[in-house]
Design goal:
globular; two-stranded parallel ribbon; 39% helix; alpha/beta; single chain; Rossmann fold; 13 helices; 280 residues
């Protein structure tokens, strides 16, 4: 049996679906504050919170593998307690969804907890794999109100290009790591196949819509004010630093998705076509 935490999110949900459809028994763990996990044969839903390791006891019973997906940057997760309970329950393999910034900016206030959690996973005594995705293509959904209402995109750092990753690719890599023996002891950086800038992503969305979207570049302070409405200050500041002053590693296209899956990572254009109805 495989336990998937964060089972209602944009990685956890498709991961649960993929594992269940491949015949694996899955315990889908969520905090019960959003949509319920997928209702599929072989899927058991459990309400628990990673901030309370004791709440995971029933979910971990009989499990052999654990997908550890923490909310935010992991600041509220008692990693040692969660991992200890997993090991005591007989879990043999843990796959952690971390963040690229835990590797590129491990000392940043926003991502130091994730960097620490990575070390705790490595020291857990279980077989481990760490996934470090970059920015998600689904972050583009933040543009929905302005595209629907004004046929415009408002974003900072218009021409800074980064290789955003499709969450479905993350889920596919996670499934491989949870069910195969070839990925133990590996840390994978997960990106898209090419770097695209906000301006270019707006053009791609416009092409998929069959129209031209206006692009308005936000000043740093304007973008920061927007981000502070949905995330803590340290996370907002680190996010803007990555978007505006990415390191060479953050700009780099990683080969790891293709290495693991035997196919190229999904392009932003493909993601846009798949999701274009949301923007109409």
């Amino acid at each position: 049996m495989i336990v998937v935490t964060g089972a209602t999110g944009n990685v956890g949900r498709p991961l649960v679906e993929s594992l269940a459809r491949s015949g694996h028994a899955v315990t889908a763990v969520s905090r019960g504050v959003t949509a319920p996990p997928p209702a599929l044969a072989g899927v058991t839903s459990v309400t628990a919170d990673l901030a309370d390791a004791a709440s995971l006891t029933s979910a971990l019973t009989g499990a052999k593998a654990l997908y550890l997906l923490v909310s935010g940057a992991g600041a509220h997760v008692d990693g040692p307690a969660v991992l200890r309970r997993a090991a005591e329950a007989g879990v043999e393999r843990v796959v952690l969804q971390s963040s690229q910034a835990a590797g590129t900016r491990p000392d940043a206030v926003s991502h130091a907890p994730l960097a620490a959690l990575e070390q705790q996973v490595r020291a857990s005594g279980m077989a481990w794999t760490i996934l470090r995705p970059g920015g998600f293509t689904t972050n583009t959904f933040a543009w929905l109100p302005s595209i629907r209402g004004q046929r415009s995109v408002f974003a900072p750092y218009a021409d800074v290009a980064l290789p955003a990753v499709d969450p479905l690719d993350i889920a596919d890599v996670a499934a491989a790591a949870l069910t195969g023996d070839l990925h133990a002891g590996r840390t994978y950086t997960l990106t898209g196949p090419a770097a695209t800038s906000p301006r270019r992503r707006a053009e791609i969305l416009g092409d998929a819509l069959g129209e031209t979207l206006a692009f308005v570049e936000l000043e740093h302070d304007q973008a920061r004010e927007q981000l502070l409405q949905v995330m803590p200050e340290p996370v907002a500041d680190c996010t803007l630093a990555i978007l505006g002053r990415p390191t060479p590693d953050e700009r780099r296209v990683s080969p790891d998705i293709e290495t693991v899956l035997g196919r190229p990572a999904t392009s932003f254009a493909t993601w846009a076509r798949r999701n274009i109805e949301a923007f109409r």
